[in-house]
Specification:
- The chain is α/β, with parallel strands linked by helices and 514 residues long.
- The chain is built from 20 helices and ten strands.
- Helix content is 49%, strand content 7%.
- Strands 4-3-6-7-2-8 form a six-stranded mixed β-sheet, with helices on both faces. Strands 1-9 form a two-stranded antiparallel ribbon. It has a two-stranded antiparallel sheet with strand order 5-10.
């Protein structure tokens, strides 16, 4: 949508959509927090807002009839399209390229630490050393998503691949397989517009020393990378003139299934000197190998590394205790502090709410319970998972970087920026507005939505008497069983029967036809 001059999507739902706790907006909190109209006028609906509450038939007919002429005239104002896109993004709380370009992030300290992280990664990744990531914390509406979008563009400018991952029911933090799918599907590489992994593979120079390092690394058994990646890289290089086979290899790297039988058939047509042996792996193990291989592939193609920007991670607090424990271990993994699970070419930024420690680690006593598991002295997967989780919790407790809260000069600067932006977007001179009071508790989102809502309504209804109100929206940390992953954590990847391979071949053929 950033590339479109104009775009409108309208979804109509009954009023119960806003109140049904089982099937309504409350079931998907990430969506609710984006579109909820917590800043609104008591009487007038903002037709440019993300959520519009239509009155029952006849109730507002007279008001609509009297205002429709002036609304149509105002709505047709011809302003700067990129500034209009920025306004739409700010209204919905989903920052885009235009917003970041015009406003920046107003978080200079975190920006500085991120620049140093990129510099360290550039130096350390070629030496096989991991780069420690960052944990960010800020309240709802403090600008975490905006900051992550800004960091994404900074990473791309410095020749890093970058993926923004939103933790949700479909992408649970503790499931490496779904995390990889989200990371690779949302990956961006500098200067490219197509599928990221396809673009990266096209950039490979088989004669370069970087590619030679990748080929050597993936074929050395002591590195622990699954031999399927060595075999598929071998085939990709040897059969580069076969576009169908090349595509199959890239799609396997990106997460699509490829049976051992199919892979062996490909190898028969281009037999290697030493045959490859394929071992059984769980889906989670294979996904971790995909992360490692993809990051090395990016470096071989000339990029400096792969940055993961993990947003909405506070949803961890709604998992069961077991899944929360796994997720804390994943925080430690992506921060690069687990010796047994490091990936030199990847570094992550994890964003949490600022009340996560008090509401989850303390009130749910997660830190205490996990410490107790570590002290039991038993040996096994659960204890190992608890030790990893404790490392993740310590990072959250001791090393989180808080976002700077709005202060007077920041608010004043942002106000003037947005006033100019709104004027440029709709070719008018926005009047001064003061519906949002300057308080230490006022969130950045409330300032931005309050100002934009009042300017929208004053432009559309110049003679109206406005009464802007703000309602409090809070994060929910109650455990939710429906957030449990529907994908088996321990699915094995291994030999398949002839019937299964035939079914897979038909499915792939149908997919290719589509």
């Amino acid at each position: 949508t950033d590339e479109l001059e104009s775009f409108l999507l309208v979804v109509t739902v009954p009023p119960v959509f806003l109140t049904d706790t089982r099937r309504g907006l409350n079931r998907y909190e990430a969506l609710k927090l984006r579109i909820w109209d917590e800043v609104r006028d008591r009487q007038y609906q903002n037709p440019l807002g993300a959520l519009i509450r239509l009155a029952p038939s006849g109730e507002a007919q007279e008001m609509v009839a009297s205002e429709i002429g002036s609304y149509q005239q105002a709505a047709m104002a011809n302003g700067d399209v990129s500034h209009q896109r920025a306004m739409e993004a700010l209204r919905s709380g989903v920052p885009n390229r235009d917003v970041v370009k015009v406003l920046g992030s107003h978080q200079p300290e975190i920006e500085g630490k991120f620049r140093r992280l990129l510099q360290e990664m550039e130096a350390q990744a070629p030496q096989g050393m991991p780069t420690k990531g960052l944990v960010l914390e800020g309240g709802f509406g403090s600008g975490k998503s905006h900051l992550l979008r800004d960091l994404q563009y900074r990473a791309l400018e410095h020749n890093f691949g970058c993926s923004r991952i939103v933790i949700s029911k479909e992408t649970p933090f503790y499931n490496v397989a779904t995390l990889f799918r989200s990371a690779i599907n949302n990956a961006l590489v500098p200067g490219k517009q197509g599928d990221a992994l396809t673009e990266v593979a096209r950039e490979l120079n088989f004669q370069s020393p970087h590619y030679a390092e990748l080929y050597d690394w993936v074929h050395r058994q002591e590195h622990g990378c699954d031999s399927r990646f060595a075999a598929t890289l071998y085939l990709y290089e040897r059969m580069i003139n076969d576009p169908e086979l090349s595509h199959r290899m890239i799609r396997f790297w990106a997460g699509d299934p490829l049976s051992n039988g199919q892979l062996k058939k490909y190898l028969q047509g281009c037999a290697p000197e030493t045959p490859y042996e394929f071992k059984k792996l769980t889906a989670q193990q294979l996904a971790w190998h995909r992360f490692q291989f993809s990051s090395r592939l990016m470096q071989a193609a000339g990029y400096k590394g792969w940055i993961l920007l993990i947003d909405e991670a506070e949803i961890i607090g709604r998992y069961s205790f077991k899944q929360r424990t796994k997720s804390y271990g994943e925080v430690a993994r992506w921060m690069g502090v687990l010796e047994e699970a490091v990936c030199p070419g990847i570094s992550a930024i994890v964003a949490l709410t600022d009340d996560f420690q008090s509401a989850v680690l303390e009130e749910k006593q997660d830190a205490q319970k996990i410490d107790q598991l570590c002290q039991d002295g038993e040996v096994g997967d659960e204890v190992a998972m608890a030790h990893a989780a404790r490392s993740g919790i310590r990072l959250i407790e001791e090393e989180s970087e808080p976002l700077v809260r709005p202060y007077d000069s920041m608010v004043d600067t942002l106000y003037e920026q947005l006033r100019g932006l709104h004027g440029s977007a709709y070719s008018w001179d926005p009047p001064p507005v003061s519906a949002v009071e300057k308080l230490s508790s006022t969130r950045m989102r409330e300032y931005v939505r309050g100002w934009i809502t009042e300017w929208d309504l004053r432009r559309l209804y110049p003679e109206a008497r406005l009464e802007i109100e703000i309602t409090d929206v809070r994060q929910n940390y109650e455990e939710d069983q429906e957030l449990e992953s529907s994908i088996a954590d321990e699915t094995e990847v291994g030999p398949t029967s002839e019937a299964e391979e035939a079914m897979m071949a038909v499915a792939l053929q149908n997919q290719a036809s589509v």
